Amino acid sequence: MKALIILISFILEGVFSNYVQTSSYFIPLFTLTALVIIYPLFTEIKDYYKYAFLTGLAYDLIYTDTIVFHAIIFCFMAYIISRFNLVLTDNFINILIIVGLSIAIYRIITYLILILVSRLSFSFINLIFSILKSLILNLIYSLILFLIVKKSQKKYKYKF
Amino acid sequence: MANKKFDKRYLFIFVVIAIAIVLTILAASLNKERDLNPIEKALKDMGTVVIKVVSTPFNFVHDKIDEMVEKNDIYEKYKEIKNKEEQIDSVIAQNDNLKDEIGKLKETLNLNTILSDKVYMNATVVTRNIDYWYNEITIDKGSKNGIEKGMAVVVPKGLIGQITKVSNYTSTVKLLSNENMSDKISVKIKVGDNYVYGLISAYDAKTNTYTVEGISENVKIEKDADVVTTGMGTIFPSGLIVGKVKEVTTDNFDLSKVVEVKSSVDFNDIDYVTVLKRKSE
User: Fold this and answer.
1) Judging by beta carbons within 10 Å of its beta carbon (0-12, 13-18, 19+), is residue A125 exposed, middle or buried?
2) Which of A100, B7, B41, B74 could form a disulfide with B167 if both were Cys (CB 3.0 to 4.6 A apart)?
3) Is B127 helix (H, G, I), strand (E, B) or coil?
4) Which of A63, A117, A120 lies at the smallest CB-CB distance from B23?
5) Which residues touch B164 (CB under 8 Å, ≥6 apart)?
6) CB of B44 within 8 A of CB of B165?
7) Closest listed residue to residue A35, CA positions, set A141, A150, A156
8) Is a pLDDT exceeding 90 seen at residue A105?
9) At B1, is the pLDDT very low, low, confident or very high (cuts 50, 70, 90)?
10) pLDDT (0 to 100) of residue A99
11) Whole-angstrom Cα distance, residue B84 to residue B134?
């Protein structure tokens, strides 16, 4: 189930990116969103890090042509998500807050690192807009995913 | 207890070294000259096939919606096309004549190829811009289809980018809308019957314009003049349309002109592309 959610989100992100425009306010970051949603399903934190690392590796290979960059970033995001979950419990408003904060942190970190390796030039407005543009669609997606996971948990009394 | 202290002291050094290694690897992997290794190639091909299969039904729906939208103004389109059709015969005749002339001139000059000779290859966009910062698209043709690094990529409206990474059945196109262009592209601007030469040095996403530099002060450039590639320097063929002149200013020292060129392509809407290669002997 966990692997399925990640896989579907990962592929959907690729498919969706074909239809949304870069300048529009709907930029998909479904993989990161799925990482937030599946956190409560794990009992072992080590397994969670493994999932994050492998997802990041796939992201590197298929989407961005970099080596281990996203694998490490996703592991770091997994750490941050686990910290957030210590403070905020697992209900849907809290999930939305965590998703929003994770997206902001992810954007800021990747932006700073890409500036460090002189791939981009610094522009604060660009950074703020990139965060705003990725919020709307991903919050909606996280809400849908969260409801689906909760429903199926209740209905099938399923041990994930 | 002693063990724990030992860990903490070295943790800082460990983290610093780890960050340094990651940054080095990242800088190396973002390098444009890098070739994908065979494992990366194989995995990328596999992933792209999966995404292509999954996106087929989505594509179908998308095409149907496009069709519906297009049907609305079909009559006006028809009138427009009918107007153009009347002119097309004379254009074809003229074109044939010019081709013939070029052929003869080539023969007399003993030239095998000229800068505008090119080979075409059509491709479909599989994923685009998966991460906000990268400004790249992935297309479904690769080295097995004859694609090489550095080829020009165009849509009917004009030039959009350059192939940067090639695997067996897919390749990555770096779009010109990338804000930091590491390659300067040589272009020429039409002035009367002649051309002036310049280099594209930057792109502004907000206004969809390029900045062209290196043009001498004493030429008069008109608004809406065509800007095309020269075919020099890079392996781009010549005569690919880039855009139209929007604004002419001078640089900080009043020594040369800086031209703002409105791009003819909408970078947000790219579905099918054509890869071009300059024909060489």
Assistant:
1) exposed
2) B41
3) strand
4) A117
5) B32, B136, B149, B172, B173, B174
6) no
7) A141
8) yes
9) very low
10) 92
11) 40
Q: Decide: A100 and A81 in contact? Cβ < 8 Å.
A: no
Distance CA B27, CA B31 (A): 6
CB-CB under 8 Å, A130 with B132: yes
Question: Nearest chain A Cα to B272, which residue?
Answer: A18
Q: What are the structural domains of chain B?
A: 185-263 (2.40.10.350)
Cα separation, A44 vs A50, whole angstroms? 10
What gap in Å lies between CA A108 and CA A102, rounded to an integer? 10
> How far apart are alpha carbons A145 and B2 in whole angstroms?
46
Q: Do B180 and A58 touch (CB under 8 A)?
A: no
Optimal mutation site among B45, B129, B132, interface A, most CBs of chain A within 10 A: B132
Of A13, A23, A114, the CB nearest to B268: A23
Contact A51, A38 (CB under 8 A): yes
Which burial class, exposed, middle or buried, applies to A35 when counting CB atoms under 10 A from its CB (0-12, 13-18, 19+)? buried
Asked if A69 and B25 count as a contact pair (C-beta separation under 8 A), the reply is: yes
Q: Which residues of A touch B29 (CB under 8 A)?
A: 65-67, 69
What band does A55 get if pLDDT is binned at 50, 70 and 90?
Answer: very high
Q: Determine contact, residues B142/B168, Cβ cutoff 8 Å.
A: yes
HEC states along chain A?
Answer: CHHHHHHHHHHHHHHHCCCCCCCCCCCCCHHHHHHHHHHHHCCCHHHHHHHHHHHHHHHHHHHHCCCCHHHHHHHHHHHHHHHHHHHCCCCHHHHHHHHHHHHHHHHHHHHHHHHHCCCCCCCHHHHHHHHHHHHHHHHHHHHHHHHHHHHHHHHHCCCC
pLDDT in tens, B53-109: 888 888 889 888 888 888 888 888 888 888 888 888 889 999 999 989 888 888 888
pLDDT digits (tens, 9 = 90+) for B239-275: 888 888 888 888 778 778 888 888 888 877 788 888 8
User: What DSSP character marks residue B38?
Assistant: H
Mark yes or no for CB contact B180/A119 under 8 Å: yes
Q: Does B127 touch chain A (CB under 8 A)?
A: yes
Q: Measured between alpha carbons, how far is B24 from A69 in angstroms, rounded to an integer? A: 10
User: Are B205 and A15 an interchain contact pair (Cβ–Cβ within 8 Å)?
Assistant: no
Residue B115 has pLDDT above 90, yes or no: no
